[in-house]
């Protein structure tokens, strides 16, 4: 962060020249209370304020600083959900679950029966606000510099106010949302109370990487003109979207096969995933964030490999036990993931080419140029292959067998583990 005086600058330089040492927290209960926010009169906002106040008096308490970053990350999700819910968009969680095959979702929070109108401009403002929130979390994490930190969090009981009604209820506890993205551990109210994660230094890098991936997604979305999609098919997500095509709305859905959504709207939505680039600089920012995510993932594993304890690990090294019952990480998984990181970095930097899935196999896609020299994005044409034409080159491809090795190591569940590992 900017330093306003020479004295502060000298202190910053000295701090960087030696490993930071975490100060023993004088009020460790402030962290415990932060992750049971929502009970009684508490809230995540109040937890953030309490941790910030604690750090004002204990600026070297790195555990509390890490806890503050985690709470702020949870707040980004709460604020985004509130913004979506106000306009009827909370059902996007269930829709995403259905479309990705992750199974049924007990959201706990019903759809908004009286959604507010939303314009495309307001939708983009929501994404910008979320992007700013996540960037602030990443900056907080960057200030966690101690070699050893630990935050014990009873995350399953953390409550959100997802529907912006001013109450963080039992139906909005985190364990309910956790069921959406995994199936090995099926939490309920009872075992959630006993589910404690001891986040450590490697997990701080994990969360920084997660922030960077979120920021890359936000930058990619804002780089493109999505107005046509929003106005023609946005009512799939936002029933009260402001559109010149109001005549499409109403109870008559001739191709609604008991899903609440007309199938032709879903077809149109896929057809309209074709956007002109409005802000090309955002695409380069997205690539930078993805490269940073790779670097944080490597740093994460360096910290994990150095660990000798075995204490309720969020992501364990091959010698440790995961806090999530039944979850495990073996040496093959670790090595396959690190190999995948090497290949991803080489693609993003343009040092290697992504092997093209059509043609005679002599040329590949320069992924760096996809970001640096953007053209209209069209999902269907990318799948078909013609959109890749301007970026095809001859050169060194990514290593053969990388993807197959990852599939074998993760027993066919690469994407589920990618959500976990980032």
What report would you give on this structure?
By secondary structure, this protein is mainly alpha-helical. It is built from 17 helices and seven strands. The chain has a three-stranded antiparallel beta sheet, with no helix packed on it. Helix 4 (62-86) runs antiparallel to helix 6, helix 6 packs antiparallel against helix 9 (201-223) and helix 12 (280-306) runs antiparallel to helix 13 (331-348). The two termini are 26 Å apart. Mean pLDDT is 84; it is low at 1-27 and 92-107.
Summarize, please.
This protein has helices spanning 6-16, 29-34, 44-57, 62-86, 92-99, 120-142, 174-178, 189-194, 201-223, 227-233, 263-271, 280-306, 331-348, 367-372, 379-384, 402-409, 414-421, and strands at residues 150-153, 197-200, 274-275, 354-355, 364-365, 377-378, 392-393. The chain is mainly alpha-helical.
Task: Give a short account of the largest sheet.
Answer: 3 strands, antiparallel
Strand order of the largest sheet: 4-5-7
Taking all residues together, what is the mean pLDDT?
Answer: 84
Low-confidence stretches: 1-27, 92-107
Helix content: 40-55%
Basic shape? globular
Q: How many DSSP helices? A: 17
* Strand percentage: under 5%
Class from secondary-structure proportions: mainly alpha
Q: Between the first and last Cα atoms, what is the distance in angstroms? A: 26 Å
Order of secondary-structure elements:
HHHHHHEHHEHHHEHHEEHEHEHH
Rg over C-alpha atoms, rounded to the nearest angstrom: 23 Å
Number of extended strands: 7
């Amino acid at each position: 962060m900017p330093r306003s005086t020479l004295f502060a600058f000298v202190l910053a330089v000295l701090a960087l020249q030696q490993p930071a040492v975490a100060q023993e927290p004088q009020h460790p209960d402030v962290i415990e209370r932060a992750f049971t926010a929502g009970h009684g009169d508490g809230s995540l906002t109040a937890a953030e304020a309490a941790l910030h106040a604690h750090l004002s008096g204990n600026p070297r308490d790195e555990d509390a600083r890490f806890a503050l970053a985690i709470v702020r990350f949870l707040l980004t999700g709460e604020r985004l959900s509130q913004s979506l819910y106000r306009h009827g968009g909370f059902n996007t969680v269930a829709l995403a679950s259905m479309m990705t095959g992750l199974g049924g979702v007990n959201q706990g929070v019903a759809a908004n029966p009286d959604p507010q109108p939303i314009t495309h401009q307001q939708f983009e403002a929501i994404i910008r606000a979320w992007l700013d929130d996540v960037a602030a979390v990443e900056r907080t994490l960057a200030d966690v510099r101690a070699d050893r930190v630990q935050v014990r969090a009873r995350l399953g009981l953390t409550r959100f106010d997802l529907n912006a009604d001013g109450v963080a209820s039992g139906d909005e506890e985190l364990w309910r949302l956790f069921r959406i993205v995994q199936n090995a551990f099926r939490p309920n109210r009872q075992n959630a109370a006993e589910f404690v994660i001891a986040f450590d230094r490697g997990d701080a890098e994990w969360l920084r990487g997660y922030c960077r991936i979120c920021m890359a997604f936000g930058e990619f979305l804002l780089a493109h003109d999505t107005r046509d999609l929003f106005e023609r098919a946005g009512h799939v997500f936002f029933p009260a979207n402001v559109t010149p095509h109001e005549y499409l709305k109403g109870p008559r859905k001739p191709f609604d096969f008991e899903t609440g959504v007309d199938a032709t709207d879903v077809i149109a939505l896929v057809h309209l995933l074709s956007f002109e680039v409005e802000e090309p600089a955002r695409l380069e920012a997205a690539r930078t964030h993805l490269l940073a995510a790779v670097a944080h993932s490597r740093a994460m594993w360096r910290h994990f490999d150095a660990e000798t304890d075995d204490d309720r690990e969020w992501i364990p090294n091959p010698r440790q036990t995961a806090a999530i019952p039944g979850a495990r990480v073996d040496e093959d998984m670790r090595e396959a993931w690190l190999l995948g990181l090497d290949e991803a970095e080489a693609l993003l930097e343009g040092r290697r080419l992504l092997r093209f899935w059509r043609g005679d196999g002599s040329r590949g896609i320069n992924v760096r140029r996809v970001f640096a020299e953007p053209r209209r994005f069209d999902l269907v044409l990318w799948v078909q292959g013609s959109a890749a034409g301007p970026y095809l080159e001859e050169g060194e491809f990514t290593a053969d067998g990388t993807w197959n090795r990852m599939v074998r190591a993760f027993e066919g569940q690469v994407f589920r583990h990618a959500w976990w590992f980032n």
